[in-house]
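Notes from hallway chat w/ T.B., transcribed later so I don't forget. T.B. wanted the structure written out for a chain they're using in a teaching module, and asked if we could keep both sequence and structure tokens in one place. Agreed to drop them here.
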Amino acid sequence: MWTSKNWQDYELLDCSDGERLERWGKYILIRPDPQVIWKNARHNALWKHADAEYNRSKSGGGSWSEKSELPSDWRLSYGALRFMVRPTGFKHTGIFPEQAVNWDWFSNLIRNEKREIKVLNLFAYTGGATVAAAKAGASVVHVDAAKGMVEQAKINAKLSGLENAPIRYIVDDCMKFIAREQRRGNTYDAIIMDPPSYGRGPSGETWKLEENLSDFVNEAMKLLSDDPLFVLINSYTTGLSPSTTSYVLDLALHSRYPQRIPRGSLTADEIGLPVTESGDVLPCGASARWEKSSGGK
């Protein structure tokens, strides 16, 4: 498992009976997590002294019950990156801390490449990967269908000192954007995508991961340059294994480069967060990675 273990401002303190106990800066939150199916004893005293707890509603969604005064948003750092934390009515905070292990991975690739790298970030949310890639020196096209998430991504870039970085923000359905980029003949040296299990585009387009992922990845890979650096696909869909995502990516790369795929390696695994109380690692999703081998094509 690839583990995000370099955080200072975030900590997964404990997890039990469908919930996480987390430290976000100086604030302690309790949030639901369907992966937490065990019911270990809650020895950590902060379970009873959290600043806020998210409660699901039977009709869908949910709300936060505050046990102490909580600001509407606050700041969090990961190395040189800074983010705005903003708890939402859908239990999220604007950051997926487990993704830091992927940020570190592709940031090193970008820095070591010694050339200009163009990155396409699809389903880019609040821009964690966008900020990491831009901080490493890449130019980034950030695409997401939710205008509010794109605005928060701009805030995160500014907080990280990247307000003047070569980042282009696009509010659009990702498949439609890919089709236009193909017609324009635009290509990218790296592609990141974090497709949702289910969603709707700005014009009501329906997205279902199991039905759409393969076609989507095939179309996205057509935008890769002749000298690609990396591809990253993230998934949080229960039941979709890392090896399944890897298989989809492998087929798409063979379709993009029918004569000879650039030399590289394809790996896939779960990503996770260390749990302070138990010393174990909580699985939080899956990623498939392709990276160019050192030495070129």
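Follow-up for T.B.: DSSP finds six helices and 17 strands in the chain. Might be a good example for the class.
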